[in-house]
Amino acid sequence: MSEKRKLYIRALKQYVQTGSLGNSASQLSPALADSLPEEIVMLHERCLSTLVSGVDPEEAIRMHKLSLLFLIDVMVYGRYASAKLESSENPVHELRELMFKIHNRSSLASSKYEDVLQHLDCGIIMFDIDGYVSFVNVQMAKFLNVPRKSILGCSLRELLGHTALSGSFRKLIYKLYREMYEYRLRYQEVIDEAGRHYLVTATYGEDMDGDILISVKDITDFKRIEQSAYQNDKLALLGKIAASIAHEVRNPLTSIRGFIQLLRPHLKQLGKEDYAKIILDEIDRANGIIYEFLNSSKPSTPDKQEVHISALLKEIRLLFESEALLRGCDIEVSPVDAQLTVCIDVKQVKQALLNLVKNSLDAVDRAASNRKGLIRISADRQGGKVRIHLQDNGTGMDHHTLSRLFDPFFTTKEEGTGLGLAVCYRIIKNHGGAIGVDSVVGEGTSFHITLPAM
After folding, report:
1. pLDDT at 100
2. Sign of the dihedral defined by the CA atoms of residues 353, 358, 361, 362, in that order
3. Is 95 helix (H, G, I), strand (E, B) or coil?
4. Whether residues 157 and 73 fall in one domain
5. 160 and 247, same domain (yes or no)
6. DSSP 156-222
7. pLDDT > 70 in the chain, percent
8. Prediction pTM value
């Protein structure tokens, strides 16, 4: 290593540690007196590369910023300090001060822009032309659940191999890489393992000088609003269909049922009474489907009255007590404040709760487990709302099922109509409330109904 480079590294190291040239300036200036500006810049880059090797990315960025100030000092004093000037003139000092002002203004603007990027509600990560992470904001680090400092300077391969990155995110990042890098797709919507929705945008091209900017926006809440609007549209359409066909179908069914009952004694004489029973059962089942159809489409205003939640939940438990015993399932109702009341249409809300408990019993029945079936029902007050919780340890549901749970005609049961939960959704919405669900496959499901408190 040349003497000039040793002096430069020593002075640069002292500067990034203390912020001052100190005694090194007197030794360095003569050594650089005969060097051209481009030679000094090249020497600076080589020495800086040596110093930053082995340090963490955050410290390397700090050293790069300070090294620019060091280079200003070196260029000013190394090139002009030895010039012969009249005593009244001090252009070196003026030039140095001007360059520092320009640098400080530039740094201040850069710092402000970086602060803005760091506090955006969307995640941002930038890959330079060589494929290394040159910038990542706090939100992106939160999305990945990886320390921000450990991401800076990583290549895509190193990021995928990061020990703190979950397996699901590795698969997700690789999928995005294929679709956005190889197929040049700029926009992608993805869902993580927790069911949250993200919009991923890639920005690249001539304006980016070879860099690639990736932004990630959590759009889960927007999706919920969109899904709610979509659900209301489907229920409105369902109402129109139900209103148009119910009358036309029920009248012929009533006539057919009447004639079958008249023919039943004759069929009995022929030993074919079972045929009559099957026909009547099927007609009753068709009527039941139409009844659910009509209930799901009725936009009728609830006939509200004050009801004690504790009494309502106890009644629900009594209605299913015998069926639960036959299925080997326990229904537990947690103690509820006796003064907790809501203003509801008792028949409608009871119907919604009965549908939910029936679904929970079916889920517990289908669970491939030796554990005893259990349904817990509880209620509490949260501010101006009353929340009713219904939890089971049944089969649970995946994200696909959850996303379509309240859709009319969507069902996972062989004999289901797919209208029960659509009815629940409509009833709770008509009461100014909300219904939500959490579920884990193999562990169970929890429904939450929110209603305005008295």
Report:
1. 56
2. negative
3. helix
4. no
5. no
6. HHHHHT-TTS-HHHHHHHHHHHIIIIIS---EEEEE-TT--EEEEEEE-SGGGTT-EEEEEEE-HHH
7. 79
8. 0.46
